[in-house]
């Protein structure tokens, strides 16, 4: 009777770690301060279609665009373009020039300056 109890206890002790290891679930790897490692490279198939004399290289174009976006994600924009305001471009604002030049607009290269008024003291007489 003693012998089967010892065997049962020994089997329980030996089998329980093996059963517990089967239930362990691996968590995904956490990467701090960088991109996650690529687990498997995706295999994409590129199909080139030729209709008449034109060829469609859509897959190759998409791969190249992804590579360019990965290397240089910001589009290169000019500082001044056709949609920029007049102040940035430096074009002439006609109503502002008319206001500045007054009567001399279209007549002279110098703005109109009226003669300074002469004021007299009212108590001087």
TrEMBL record:
Residues 1-20 form the signal peptide. Keywords: Signal. This is Uncharacterized protein. The lineage of its organism: Bacteria, Pseudomonadati, Pseudomonadota, Alphaproteobacteria, Hyphomicrobiales.
């Amino acid at each position: 009777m003693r012998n089967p109890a010892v065997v049962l206890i020994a089997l329980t002790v030996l089998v329980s770690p093996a059963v517990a290891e089967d239930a362990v679930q691996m968590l995904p790897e956490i990467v701090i301060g960088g991109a996650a490692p690529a687990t498997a490279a995706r295999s994409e198939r590129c199909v080139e279609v030729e209709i008449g004399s034109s060829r469609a290289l859509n897959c190759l174009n998409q791969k190249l665009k992804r590579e360019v976006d990965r290397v240089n994600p910001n589009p290169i924009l000019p500082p001044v373009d056709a949609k920029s305001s007049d102040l940035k471009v430096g074009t002439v604002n006609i109503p502002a020039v008319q206001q500045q030049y007054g009567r001399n607009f279209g007549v002279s290269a110098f703005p109109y300056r009226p003669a300074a008024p002469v004021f007299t003291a009212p108590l001087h007489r």
